[in-house]
Specification:
This protein has 25 helices and two strands. It is mainly α. The protein is globular and about 60 Å long. The chain has four domains: 53 residues, no CATH class; 192 residues, Growth Hormone, Chain: A (Up-down Bundle); 216 residues, Growth Hormone, Chain: A, CATH 1.20.1250; 31 residues, no CATH class. It has a two-stranded antiparallel ribbon. It comes from Cerrena zonata. Keywords: Membrane, Transmembrane, Transmembrane helix, Transport.
């Protein structure tokens, strides 16, 4: 039996199931999704004109809407199917085939209605990577590191938007309309090959490999109730593939149980999430972030041109100031969420973005505007990492609700927000005399409201609950003695003090 198991053991099992590889593939999938979405936006108007259509701007708008419609409509069934069958890899592969098919259709079809269908199919592919891909990552990563790895994967969102439009324009100028699509198809094939190599954690466990245990071991020294069993059993050792390893694999994998023991029907999942204030607030913050972030998409170029008379090339440079900070903020916010709690990082990002949205209304200085929009983008983009980590915690706290369920809700609300944002922003800018001012202070109002919701409901123990507990215990503003800090004790021993060295800690929360 040993020989049979060893001979069937997949090649590269350890690295193909590892956290870094899964994070890389999910991040690549998000990058591909956003790059394919944005690379064709600069070239679609020219193709529609080439095909003889009039009113091109309106037709492009409906193509963007078709993408959002496909994403929103197919998110619930994809989430339900992924959780029902407990599969991540095959939906990801099928989604990538849909993406390739949509690119070929957009490149070759001669009629507008077929282009609309292609964009709907592209929306279906997008919801697969955002729902199933994020669920796969949470299946693999130990819960104390979810925020960090989600943050790394989320950098693909900004990277795709950063690379897509300039690459699309350059390829169109050099090779014509098919150039951007050929590039997208090549990237899609590379992404598909990466997904083929994925080995899900539930499959790796059959061979005694637990990628979560390998990463979680150094940080699992604190005694935690839910991990005592994993610490007490024999750890999974990946060095050999004997049956001695495969037998305890199911016992030692206690980080993120896959699949859940009890599966709820979709209607029960929806009602459970609706009854959870923590879940609903997290989903509402997702919608607000998507709406606010996208309100500037149609209006920022118009504002820069109107106030400072900037050309398209200079506006493109300023867009780099919007995107590049988010490449840093996403992994940083995720890392901080794992250590300080998602409630603190979510609330901090929301509040720290508020003053910079107000500064964006100042029209006297372009350098000040660039600095403000870069800092605003840093904090606004940083919201998503703790929010997605919070959704993973919501899934773990409700029996029968899987990661695909909560990320389906995330994708649905983010899709609605990012779909409404450009419409609201464009209408406000066109029909109000101080449209940009109104957009900025709409963002201020929404972010302040979202921060209050996060203050009251986000986290295992929200900030408001902590303050109330401290107040009832009379410890809200108290000094107390704590145990000596080890480093200070060592320093004290060098000088042989006559009394114990004690640290005085100011207790706030």
């Amino acid at each position: 039996m040993d020989a049979v198991n060893t001979s069937k053991r997949p090649w590269g099992l350890k690295w193909r199931s590892s956290i870094w590889f899964i994070t890389l593939i999910v991040g690549l999938g998000i990058t591909t999704d956003l790059l394919v979405y944005s690379i064709i936006i600069p070239v679609l108007p020219f193709q529609l004109e080439h095909l003889g259509y009039q009113g091109v701007s309106g037709l492009v708008g409906w193509l963007l809407f078709a993408y959002s419609a496909g994403l929103v409509l197919f998110t619930p069934p994809i989430a339900a199917i992924s959780e029902h069958y407990g599969e991540r890899k095959w939906p990801l592969l099928l989604g990538q085939l849909c993406l390739a098919a949509s690119q070929v259709m957009l490149m070759e079809v001669p009629t507008y209605w077929l282009m609309v269908i292609a964009r709907v199919i592209q929306g279906v592919s997008s919801c697969v990577v955002w729902v199933v891909g994020l669920a796969l990552l949470c299946d693999t990563v130990p819960e104390e590191s979810v925020g960090k790895y989600l943050g790394f994967a989320m950098t693909g969102l900004s990277l795709g938007f950063l690379v897509g439009p300039p690459v699309g324009g350059a390829l169109y100028n050099q090779f014509g309309f098919r150039g951007p699509f050929i590039f997208s198809i090549i990237l899609t094939v590379i992404d598909f090959c990466g997904r083929l190599l994925i080995i899900e954690r539930k499959d790796a466990l059959r061979w005694g490999i637990d990628p979560a245990a390998v990463v979680a071991k150094p940080v699992s020294t604190p005694a935690e109730g839910e991990k005592k069993e994993g610490a007490s059993e024999n750890p999974v050792t990946p060095q050999n593939g004997s049956t001695d390893q495969t037998q305890p694999a199911s016992q030692t994998s206690t980080f993120n149980q896959v699949p859940p023991a009890e599966r709820l029907p979709l209607l029960k999942v929806v009602t459970t999430l609706l009854k959870s204030p923590r879940a609903m607030v997290t989903i509402m913050i997702t919608l607000i972030q998507g709406l606010v972030y996208s309100t500037t998409e149609p209006t920022l170029p118009l504002h820069l041109q109107e106030i400072w008379n900037l050309t398209s090339s200079k506006i493109g440079i300023i867009y780099m100031a919007v995107v590049i900070p988010s490449l840093i903020s996403s992994p940083l916010a995720g890392w901080l969420s794992d250590r300080g709690g998602s409630e603190w990082i979510t609330m901090s990002c929301l509040l720290l973005a508020v003053p910079w949205w107000a500064v964006l209304t100042i029209q006297s200085s372009l350098p000040l505007f660039i600095v403000a929009i870069a800092i605003q983008s840093f904090f606004t983009s940083g919201i998503l990492s703790p929010v997605t980590a919070e959704l993973a915690a919501v899934s773990r706290s409700h029996a029968g609700i899987g990661y695909a369920h909560v990320y389906g809700a995330f994708n649905l609300c983010y899709g609605i927000g990012s779909g409404l944002g450009p419409v609201i922003g464009g209408q406000l800018y066109d029909h109000i005399s101080r449209g940009w001012f109104t957009i900025c202070f709409l963002a201020v109002g929404l972010f302040v409201s979202a921060s209050l919701l996060a203050f009251c409901f986000t986290g295992d123990k929200p900030v408001l609950s902590r303050l109330i507990s401290r107040h009832r215990e009379g410890r809200l503003f108290k000094f107390r003695h704590t145990t000596p800090v080890p480093n200070l004790l060592k320093l004290a021993q060098l000088f042989k003090p006559t009394k114990n060295v004690m640290c005085i800690k100011y207790i706030w929360l």
